[in-house]
DNA sequence: TGCTTATATAACTATATAATTATATAATAA
DNA sequence: TTATTATATAATTATATAGTTATATAAGCA
C-alpha cells in the first residue's frame, strides 16, 4: 500500500473505470468482467483487480465460488479515490450503473428476508 | 489537463519528488536539475517538467534566460497534489529543502529592496 | 467421481515509458 | 559577432505495461 503502488494503480484508465463501477456497491469478479465484456478479457480484468488490491484500494473476499471486490474506504487513499469517483464527471455513467446494481442487490436481500 | 494526463503524471516517483521540491516555492529548471544531480540528467528532468506542465500540475514561465516552474494551485488537481505533498511523510525532507529555498529567495528579495 | 462455472496464472507480443548521450535553440555577456 | 549559459529536443536503448490466448486451480453440482 505504498504511494508508488497507489499511484501506479490509478495511472490506468481501465482501473479507474473499475473503481467507479465499484463506487456504490461491491461486485464479484464475474460481474465486473460482464460489464467490461468486449472492451477487455477476463484475464485482463483479473490482473487489474489484483493491482488494485495490491495497492490497498480495494478489498477482496472469496465467498464460495465467487470473489467479491469492493472499494477500501477507511484509508486516506481509499477515501480520496472514493471522493474523486464521486466528483469526476466522466465517471458518472459508471457511477449510476453501480448505484443501479446496488439497488438490485438490496432488493434481492429484501426479497430473501420475506 | 485531462484526468488521464494528471494520473499519468503522478504515476512517476521522480515527478512526485519534483512536485514536493516545488511545494514551498517555485524554482528554475536549473535549480531542480542541481537538486537531483547524480540521480537524473538534465534532459530527463526537462522531460518530467514538461509532463507535469502538460498535465496542468505546474505552471511555467520564462524569465530571461531561465524558466521558472511552480505548483499550480487553484485547480482541484493542483490543490489535491499540494495537500498530498503537505501530508505525505516521505516527501518531508524535500518539503523542508523547498521551505529553506523559499527562505533564501525571500531573504534575497528583502536584500534587493534595501 | 466427473462436469461445469468462476477466477487466476503463464507465456507471449505489442506498445509505451524512462533513461541516456548528443545536439539544437534561445538569451545574455564579452 | 562569438562565446557562454540555460533549457529543450532528437535519436536510441532498455525496461515495463497491457493486452491476448491457453491453461491451471478451486468450488459447486450431477
Name the average pLDDT of chain A. Answer: 92
Please state the structural category of chain A.
alpha+beta
Query: Within the largest sheet of chain A, what's the order of strands?
Result: 1-3-2
Cα gyration radius of chain A (Å): 14 Å
What form of chain A results from the Cα inertia axes? globular
Largest sheet of chain A: 3 strands, antiparallel
Number of strands of chain A: 3
Question: Which chain pair has the greatest contact?
Answer: A-B, 14 and 13 residues
Assembly state: homodimer
**Low-confidence segments of chain A, ≥5 residues, pLDDT <50?**
none
Description:
The longest helix of chain A has 22 residues, at about 90-114. Chain A has a 3-stranded antiparallel beta sheet. The first copy, chain A, contains 6 helices and 3 strands. Helices cover about 60% and strands about 10% of the residues of chain A. The mean pLDDT of chain A is about 90. In chain A, helix 1 runs antiparallel to helix 4 (about 40-55). The first copy, chain A, is α+β, with helices and mostly antiparallel strands and about 110 residues long. The interface between A and B is medium-sized, with 14 and 13 residues. The first copy, chain A, binds a DNA duplex (30 and 30 nucleotides) through helix 3 and helix 4.
